[in-house]
Amino acid sequence: MNQRDMYMDEISKQSGNVVDTVRAPANIEPSVSSPARRRLMKLGTAAVPVVATLASRPALAWHCQSPSAWGSEILNPNTSLKTNAGHKTYIDETWTINNWKTNTPRTAVDLASGSDAGAPWTELVRACPGLLSIGSCNPTINGKKTFKYNLVKVQDLVGCGFVNPGFASSQIVKDISSADDKTYALIGQLNYAVLKLARFKNDIDMCLKDGQLTSMAGGTYTENGTHWDLAKVKNYLYNNWIVRP
Fold first, then answer.
1. pLDDT above 70 as % of the chain
2. Which of 20, 35, 56 corresponds to the end of one domain?
3. Are 243 and 184 in contact (CB under 8 A)?
4. Element (H, E) at 4
5. Which residues of 96-114 are buried (b: 16+ CB within 10 A; e: fewer)?
6. Are 182 and 165 in contact (CB under 8 A)?
7. How far, in Å, CA of 88 to CA of 223, rounded?
8. Secondary structure letter of residue 164 according to DSSP
9. Distance separating alpha carbons of residues 177 and 133, to the nearest angstrom
10. Are residues 116 and 163 both part of a single domain?
11. Domain count of the chain?
12. Which of 109, 106, 156 is nearest to 136 (CA)?
């Protein structure tokens, strides 16, 4: 065998060893026969935690069942209620109560570009431009009308078509309690108003029909013959990720 044939034969052996190493069970320690292969093994080992980290990151999504489906599952415990099986998964989450209280952005709306979904009150005035004409929450600063979300009262939202679930009309929205059942009914309406729009649409209107949230907030909603008080409304909104603290 000439020198060229010997060289090609050695390459073939090394190739076979690499294939065998890949096919070998994980608990078998492959022999490391050259510096090049040792470097390759080190690189491969270093890459594993990175891959595992990426694979373990959950996809950003939220789950929502229609009120009728939710009501049916409440009546029948032998269903997929706890696992969210059968719930429709949408492209992004809703704003939290804290987001509304502090006007802070929620998670990214566009998973591909990572573009930020914006502050909730900035988006609400797009859905309800009438807020910009209310003098009490648009003080003049340096000769210019400036919208101040932290001055918006519940009665201002009522003027935009939202239903007051029982707050004092003069209640400042940012000061409402995160633990109050009424808060869930109000924030649910705000999320719905913004997230059914094309700008940040996440198909929330595929889960809830127009008027259902306002009916819940007004205390007139029934499903499967059962009246939903605000405690039931909170339970529905919380467990279906429409409103979270």
1. 60
2. 56
3. yes
4. helix 3-23
5. bbebbbebeebbebeeeee
6. yes
7. 20
8. P
9. 27
10. yes
11. 2
12. 156
Q: What are phi and psi of 90, to 5 degrees?
A: -105, 170
Residue 206 gets which letter from DSSP? G
Residue 130 counted as domain residue: yes
Cβ atoms of 118 and 103 within 8 Å: the answer is no
Looking at the fold, whether 29 and 69 belong to one and the same domain comes out as no
pLDDT for 1:
55
Question: Residue with structure tokens 């609400």?
Answer: 124
Q: What pLDDT sits at residue 19?
A: 36
Average pLDDT, the chain: 73
Query: 27: domain range?
Result: 3-56
Per the structure block, which two tokens stand in for 152? 């918006």
Q: Which amino acid is at 186?
A: L
Question: What Cα–Cα distance (Å) separates residue 97 from each residue in 169, 170, 179, 193?
Answer: 19, 19, 10, 15
**Listed residue (158, 221, 206) closest to 235, CA to CA:** 221
> Tokens 């050695």, residue?
10
Q: Can you tell me which residue has the tokens 């009309």?
A: 169
Question: Quick one: 190 and 105 in the same domain?
Answer: yes
pLDDT band at 119; cut points 50, 70, 90: confident
Q: Indicate whether 220 and 175 sit together in one domain.
A: yes
13: its two tokens: 């052996």
The amino acid at residue 57 is R
Q: What residue has token string 């020198």?
A: 3
* Axis crossing angle, helix 230-239 with helix 67-75, rounded to the nearest 10: 100
Residue 2 one-letter amino acid: N
Is residue 244 situated within a structural domain? no
In a domain, 35, yes or no: yes
Q: How far apart are CA 241 and CA 84, in angstroms?
A: 11
CA 236 to chain centre: 16
